[in-house]
Amino acid sequence: RDEPLVLGIETSCDETGIGIVRGRTLLSNTIASSMDEHARYGGVVPEVAARAHLEALQPSIEAALAEAGVALADLDAVAVTSGPGLAGALMVGVGAAKALAVSLGKPLYAVNHLVGHIAADILDADAPPLEYPTVALLVSGGHTSLLLVRDLTTDVELLGETMDDAAGEAFDKVARLLGLPYPGGPQIDRVAAAGDPRAIAFPRGLSRASDMAAHRYDFSFSGLKTAVARYVEQRRAAGDEVSVADVAASFREAVVDVLVTKALAACRDHDVPRLLLGGGVIANRRLRDTALERGAAAGVTVRIPPLSLCTDNGAMIAALAAELIMSGREPSTLEFGADSTLPV
Ligand code: KG4
Ligand code: ZN
């Protein structure tokens, strides 16, 4: 089959994403988020996310089919994220996908969430085709990973990842300690606009020469978060005014600097003049601009898919499965389960 019609199910975190693609063409991409329910806890609560997926799945599948103008019987395959992610949340999607595939008698493809983020780029109809090899930087509330993609379906290598908090999680935690609501990324972004990014020299995690030997492509944001907390506490204890705008701008600069520096180092080391960005933190204007500017200066072409494809979604899962099908990959057998730490 040249252009398989695939329905993708994504439930690895707090978004219930159902997407339908025909080959490399996006037909629908519905997203139901339980973000609001997590807001009062200041972060994603796994049990709440899993239950929200259960409730959202059926109506989301119906909405996606209607939007795409196709029926379940038309599908050539079902695809689902089997990991990495929150175990309970993943289990809901995997169970639903198996039930759907078995009841329809259609092949089922279990795919990796991180590789799915890379596949999202294929659905960007306005961009020229993705070329390989490419370096990919995926930054969200759940992950911060740097990958070398030599071939989407056969050769994706994890170069490095965060050793503690994800970048988006750091935004959320720092926003919280500054008294800003969840999710923190957009809030920090808003407040930082009025601040000076050079006001406070916050640490760049794992960037010292001694760290770079073993952790050249790894990230760490917990030290940065602690540094922000300590700075705010000390100023307040001394009775000094804290400029929330300067703290937000300086914190954001520290995150952006280390993300872009390490991503471009990976490009240089592997002689790859292409960098693909993905994940919800890509909404950050400063990150996009810095990557584009410093990428251009380094001779690296930076690709940024539309935000609706960068945040967690089912279309990217369907797109990856379509690529697997078109490359002749056999479907998954029903033995697979949710794997919260699934490697790429
Ligand atoms: O990919 P995503 O929508 O969902 C998951 O992580 O599952 O990413 C959400 C994360 C949150 O941590 C949020 O604070 C962060 O992305 N985020 C941002 C911005 N918008 C969202 N971080 C920094 N700047 C932003 N403008
Ligand atoms: Zn994700």
TrEMBL record:
Q: Which Gene3D superfamilies match?
A: 3.30.420.40
> Which SUPFAM superfamilies does this entry report, sorted A to Z?
Actin-like ATPase domain
Q: Pfam families from the entry?
A: TsaD
Q: Which InterPro entries match?
A: ATPase_NBD (IPR043129), Gcp-like_dom (IPR000905), KAE1/TsaD (IPR017861), Peptidase_M22_CS (IPR017860), TsaD (IPR022450)
Q: Which residues form the Gcp-like domain?
A: 26-318
**Record: residues binding Fe cation:** H113, H117, D312
**Which reactions is this enzyme annotated as catalysing?**
L-threonylcarbamoyladenylate + adenosine(37) in tRNA = N(6)-L-threonylcarbamoyladenosine(37) in tRNA + AMP + H(+)
Q: Which cofactor does it need?
A: Fe(2+)
Cofactor: record remark: Binds 1 Fe(2+) ion per subunit.
- GO biological process annotations for this chain's record? tRNA threonylcarbamoyladenosine modification
Identify which top EC class this enzyme belongs to: transferase
Q: Which GO terms describe its cellular component?
A: cytoplasm
Q: Could you tell me the keywords of this UniProt record?
A: Acyltransferase, Cytoplasm, Iron, Metal-binding, Transferase, tRNA processing
Its EC number(s): 2.3.1.234
Locations listed in the record? Cytoplasm
Q: Which residues bind substrate?
A: L138, V139, S140, G141, G142, D172, G185, D189, N284
- Key word Cytoplasm present: yes
Which GO molecular function, any one, fits this protein according to its record? tRNA N(6)-L-threonylcarbamoyladenine synthase activity
Q: What does this protein do?
A: Required for the formation of a threonylcarbamoyl group on adenosine at position 37 (t(6)A37) in tRNAs that read codons beginning with adenine. Is involved in the transfer of the threonylcarbamoyl moiety of threonylcarbamoyl-AMP (TC-AMP) to the N6 group of A37, together with TsaE and TsaB. TsaD likely plays a direct catalytic role in this reaction.
Q: Which family is this protein grouped under?
A: Belongs to the KAE1 / TsaD family.
The name under which this protein is listed is tRNA N6-adenosine threonylcarbamoyltransferase
